[in-house]
Write a structure and sequence with these properties.
Chain lengths: 104, 421, 132
C-alpha cells in the first residue's frame, strides 16, 4: 500500500497483542520500536499491547511450549497468530497477523 | 454439501497450513538472525536461553559508559572491571583484574568501605569514599549491590566526583575572596569617608567661630559669602555620608529575616517624625504581609522612598502617602530581576506630590541623578540609587510610575520565597 | 569658683586651637594644658601640681593612643578618680561602648559647629564639676 492507498482505519474489533522481548538485546529494542510505530500508525486507539520481558517474567510465557524473542502474538481477534522477528516490514506484519480493516 | 468427515478434513488441512506457515516464518526469522533468545517450558518452569546477540547491548553499555563498573567476590577480589574503572585509576586492565579491591582504596576510606561492603552483602549500600591511585586520591561515589544468588559477587558502580569537588572548592575560594574584598572595601570606604570628613568639619568649625567672633565687622556680602561656604561644606558632608551609605549596601550583612512590613513602616515614621510633622504628612496602609528581608537595608529603602514622597509634595496640598501590597506573577515585572521566583510581592507607595515626567522613570534611580536644582529641592541624588541597590540585594527590583503634577507611585517587587501572610 | 585645670590630650593642632578657644569662651579663668599623646599625658598627670580636674582624651594618637592611656590612668590610685571625657571624631558605637566600659565618663564626638561645642563642653563641665 502506498501512502495514498493506506486506509483510514477503523479496526473492526480491538486488537490484543503481546510482544515478547529479552531485556536489552538489540533485536528486542528494535522490535519494541517497530511494533509501537505499527500500533500508532495503523491501529490508533483500537489496540492493547503488552510487552513481556522473558528475563523478568518468564512465567508469563508459560502457556506456550516455546516462546522466541522477539515475537509478537495476536491474541484477539481470533485466530491466534504468532510472528517472530524484529518486524521492520510493517506491511508484512499486518498481513501476517491477518488484521482486517474497514475502509473509511 | 460437504460431508462431516470432509469438513473435518478440510479444517485439519487449514490448521496444518497455518502451522506450517508459522514454522516457515520461524525458520526464516532464525536464518535471518532475527531471534536472540527463547524460553522453553520444562517441568512447569520456563527456562530462558540467550543467543549470542542477546547480551551485546548490555556489554556495550557497561564497557562504554562513563561510570566505573566492577564485580568483586566476598573477599574483595576484583573478578570483573570495565574500561572506565581501570582508566580512572590510571592502570591497565591486567593490573586491576584479579587484584584485591582494597589495594585501590585510600587508607582514610578503608573503614567506611568495609562497612559499606558489609551492608552490601545484606542487600545494597551507597556512599562516598576516596580511591588511591598513583599517590593521588580520587573522591568517588560508589553504589554496591549484592548479586547473589544469580552471581556470587557484589556489583559496584563508581562515579568520579573529582570535577564536582573541584567546582565546590572553586566556589568556596571565590566566596572567601568575595568576603575578603568586601571587608577590605568596607574598611576602605569607612576610613576614606572618615578622612574626607575631617577637613570639612574643621572648615565648618572655624567658619562658625569666625562668624561668631567677627559678625559685626563683616560686610553684608562678606556674611553672605561665609554662609555659602558653610552651605557647601554641609552639602559635601551629606554627600560623603550618602556615598558611604551607598557603598555599604553592597558590603554589609545579607541575612534575610521574616519581618512584618507594618513594623518597618512604624520605624520609618519614627525616623522621619520631624519631617512628617513639619509637612502634616499622612501615611496610610492597607493590610500588609510579612516579608523575607534584610531588615536594616529594607528599612533604609522604605525610609528613602517615604522621605522623598514627603519632600516632593505639592506646595498647598498636604502629603498623603498610601501603601499597599499585592501578590503578582513574575511576568508583570518590567525590568530585570535576579531571582527565579514565579511570584512576587508588589508593594506600592503612592503619593499626591508633584510627580515627574514618565520619561524620567528610569533615570531617577541612577547615581547622582536629580530632576531638580539644589535651590528647588535639597538632595544628594544618591537616595534612589541606594534603593535600587538594596532591591538588587533582595533579588527584586524597584520601579516608578508618574505623571507631572499627578503624584508618583513607587513599586517594590520582592520575590516570594516561603512568604507568609 | 576655684580655677579649673583641664588636660587636653590630642595631637591635632586645629582641634587643640578650637578646644582652647571654646574653653576660654566658657570661662576665661580655666587653665587648659595640652599634650599630643598618651605618654605625655601620663607624665603631666603624675607630676603636675596643682592636679588635673578633668581630662579630655582623643583616641587616635601616636606613641600611645587614647585606649592605652585610659587603661593606664584607671590603674593608678591617684589618677583613676579624675573624670575622663573621650573627645574624638569617631562615630563608631563600638568605640563608645568600649571606652565607657573601660571607665570613661563621657563620649563626645567633635562637633563641626563652634557654638554646639561650647554648649556640650559647658554641659559636661557643669555635670562633672558641680561640687564647685
Amino acid at each position: 500500500m502506498s501512502d495514498k492507498e493506506k486506509p483510514t482505519f477503523i479496526v473492526e474489533n480491538k486488537v490484543v497483542l503481546q510482544l515478547y522481548v529479552s531485556g536489552m538485546s538489540l533485536k528486542s529494542m528494535e522490535a519494541i520500536e517497530n511494533i509501537k510505530r505499527l500500533c500508532d500508525e495503523y491501529l490508533h486507539d483500537a489496540f492493547e499491547l503488552q510487552i513481556i520481558d522473558l528475563y523478568k517474567n518468564p512465567e508469563l510465557a508459560s502457556d506456550q511450549q516455546i516462546v522466541f524473542s522477539p515475537s509478537l502474538i495476536k491474541r484477539l481477534p481470533l485466530p491466534k497468530k504468532v510472528l517472530i522477528g524484529t518486524f521492520s516490514d510493517t506491511e508484512k506484519v499486518i498481513k501476517g497477523l491477518s488484521i482486517t480493516f474497514e475502509q473509511r | 454439501m460437504k460431508t462431516l468427515p470432509e469438513a473435518n478434513t478440510l479444517k485439519r488441512i487449514e490448521d496444518l497450513e497455518n502451522r506450517l506457515a508459522e514454522a516457515e516464518q520461524l525458520i526464516d526469522a532464525i536464518k535471518a538472525g532475527e531471534v536472540d533468545a527463547f524460553a522453553i517450558r520444562s517441568e512447569n518452569k520456563m527456562e530462558v536461553f540467550t543467543l549470542h546477540s542477546g547480551d551485546y547491548a548490555y556489554r556495550v553499555l557497561i564497557e562504554n559508559f562513563s561510570e566505573g563498573a566492577i564485580n568483586v567476590t566476598e573477599e574483595g577480589l576484583i573478578v570483573y572491571s570495565n574500561k572506565y574503572f581501570h582508566e580512572l585509576l590510571g592502570l591497565s586492565y591486567e593490573n586491576v583484574i584479579g587484584t584485591s579491591v582494597y589495594e585501590f582504596i585510600h587508607p582514610e576510606s578503608i573503614a567506611s568501605f568495609q562497612s559499606l561492603f558489609t551492608a552490601a552483602l545484606a542487600g545494597k549500600s551507597k556512599g562516598e569514599i576516596k580511591l588511591n591511585a598513583a599517590s593521588k586520591s580520587i573522591p568517588v561515589y560508589i553504589s554496591l549491590t549484592s548479586l547473589y544468588p544469580k552471581l556470587p559477587t557484589i556489583g559496584i558502580i563508581i562515579t568520579d566526583l573529582t570535577e564536582k569537588k573541584n567546582q565546590a572548592k572553586l566556589l568556596e575560594e571565590k566566596n572567601k575572596e568575595l568576603v575578603r574584598s568586601n571587608v577590605e572595601l568596607a574598611s576602605f570606604s569607612y576610613s576614606a569617608s572618615h578622612d574626607l570628613q575631617e577637613p570639612l568639619r574643621k572648615i565648618q568649625a572655624f567658619t562658625s567661630r569666625i562668624l561668631q567672633l567677627e559678625k559685626e565687622n563683616f560686610s553684608a556680602s562678606g556674611l553672605d559669602y561665609f554662609s555659602r561656604i558653610t552651605n557647601s561644606a554641609a552639602r559635601m558632608q551629606s554627600l560623603i555620608e550618602a556615598l558611604l551609605s551607598y557603598s555599604r549596601t553592597n558590603t554589609s550583612e545579607k541575612r534575610f529575616i521574616p519581618t512584618k512590613l507594618t513594623d518597618v513602616i512604624e520605624e520609618t515614621k519614627v525616623d522621619l517624625q520631624e519631617q512628617i510633622e513639619q509637612n502634616n504628612a499622612v501615611i496610610e496602609s492597607t493590610a500588609l504581609p510579612v516579608l523575607n528581608i534584610i531588615p536594616l537595608q529594607f528599612q533604609q529603602l522604605i525610609t528613602n522612598v517615604i522621605s522623598n514622597a514627603i519632600k516632593y509634595r505639592k506646595e498647598n496640598v498636604n502629603p498623603v502617602i498610601k501603601i499597599s501590597a499585592v501578590k503578582v506573577s513574575a511576568s508583570e515585572i518590567r525590568g530585570d530581576v535576579d531571582s527565579k521566583a514565579d511570584m512576587y510581592w508588589k508593594i506600592s507607595i503612592a503619593d499626591n506630590g508633584i510627580g515627574f515626567e514618565p520619561r524620567y522613570a528610569g533615570k531617577i534611580f541612577d547615581l547622582f541623578q536629580r530632576l531638580h536644582g539644589q535651590n528647588e529641592y535639597s538632595g544628594t541624588g544618591i537616595g534612589l540609587a541606594i534603593c535600587k541597590k538594596i532591591m538588587q540585594n533582595h533579588g527584586g527590583i524597584i520601579t516608578a510610575e508618574s505623571e507631572s503634577e499627578k503624584g508618583a507611585t513607587f513599586q517594590i517587587y520582592l520575590p516570594t520565597i516561603n512568604q507568609t501572610k | 569658683m576655684k580655677a579649673l585645670n583641664i588636660l587636653l590630650v590630642d595631637d591635632d593642632s586645629d582641634d587643640q586651637m578650637i578646644f582652647i578657644d571654646a574653653i576660654k569662651e566658657i570661662d576665661h579663668s580655666i587653665q587648659c594644658h595640652v599634650v599630643g599623646n598618651g605618654l605625655e599625658a601620663l607624665l603631666s598627670l603624675r607630676t603636675k601640681s596643682p592636679s588635673t580636674d578633668i581630662i579630655f582624651l582623643d583616641l587616635n594618637m601616636p606613641k600611645m593612643n587614647g585606649y592605652e592611656c585610659l587603661e593606664e590612668i584607671k590603674k593608678e590610685k591617684h589618677l583613676k578618680e579624675i573624670p575622663v571625657v573621650i573627645y574624638t571624631t569617631s562615630k563608631l558605637e563600638a568605640e563608645k561602648e568600649r571606652t565607657l566600659q573601660m571607665g570613661a565618663k563621657h563620649f563626645l564626638i567633635k562637633p563641626s559647629d563652634f557654638s554646639l561645642l561650647i554648649k556640650e563642653l559647658s554641659r559636661i563641665l557643669n555635670l562633672e564639676l558641680k561640687q564647685d
